[in-house]
Amino acid sequence: MLRFDTLRLDTPRLRLRPLRPDDAPAVYALHADPVALRYWSTPPWDDPAQADELIGRDLKALAEGDYLRLGLQRHADGRLIGLCSLFAFHLPSRRCELGYLLQRGLWGQGLMHEALLALLDYGFGVLDLNRIEADIDPRNAASRRSLERLGFAEEGRLRERWIVAGEVSDTALYGLLRRDWAARVGAPLPRRG
Ligand SMILES: CC(C)(COP(=O)(O)OP(=O)(O)OC[C@H]1O[C@@H](n2cnc3c(N)ncnc32)[C@H](O)[C@@H]1OP(=O)(O)O)[C@@H](O)C(=O)NCCC(=O)NCCS
User: What separation in Å is there between the alpha carbon of 141 and the centre of ligand 1?
Assistant: First the structure.
């Protein structure tokens, strides 16, 4: 059985780690920003209790391996500045989806790129995934660039797939295969087990 509750991934500027109850104010601030949530699959939050609920769900889900969400904690000051996740696992197909959210004032410094390099390395290298997908709003330029910079390819459009607070939007579906990743890192990936 997978379990993620003790996972830590370190990058030059960040520690990726499971959320803790005392992260609730930072998690709330991330999800309450209407600009950062402009293209998200849910509306911005308006109740701090939503952060407590998310962290409570994570504690159980990470221990049971249902999904993996990690907070991005900055080495420099210990602050939690973002979230990234692997979810919707389909283990027979060795596939899951990727999600990510970074505090707005910190965009454009390559921080999420750094975090996602570590997360994808874990997904392909340790979890032995064959495919990681991202479902984004085609209008989300920063997300699109983030994915392309990591080697994801746009594979298709799904029309009117989302209705969020009454706004209908399409999906641009991106995919990254294990062999794409292996070519990118320049070495065959080890098989687990
Ligand atoms: C998507 C997101 C995580 C990118 O984080 P980031 O740390 O700024 O990303 P990086 O610094 O690694 O930059 C990735 C690319 O996006 C570009 N970018 C960053 N902010 C941008 C913006 N506001 N508009 C257009 N491009 C932008 C960067 O220039 C970079 O492109 P480059 O490789 O051509 O230079 C961040 O913008 C975010 O949290 N957005 C809101 C949440 C969201 O939409 N998540 C995805 C939902 S599927």
Answer: 7
Among residues 185, 112, 179, 96, the alpha carbon closest in space to that of 147 is found at: 112
Residue 13: exposed, middle, or buried by beta-carbon count in 10 A (0-12, 13-18, 19+)? middle
* Average pLDDT of the residues in 33-49: 98
Topology at the third CATH level for domain 9-185: Aminopeptidase (3.40.630)
Q: From ligand 1's centre to the CA of 193, what distance in Å? A: 35
Residues 6+ apart with CB under 8 A from 29: 103
Alpha-carbon distance 66 to 125, whole Å?
19
pTM: 0.94
DSSP secondary structure code for residue 77 in this structure:
T
Specify the 3-state DSSP secondary structure of 55: helix
Structure tokens at 20: 């803790």
- Average pLDDT score, the chain: 96
Rounded distance between C-alpha atoms, residue 3 and residue 183, angstroms? 28
Name the residue with the closest Cα to ligand 1, atom 25: 142
Nearest to 132 by CA among 170, 171, 172, 180: 180
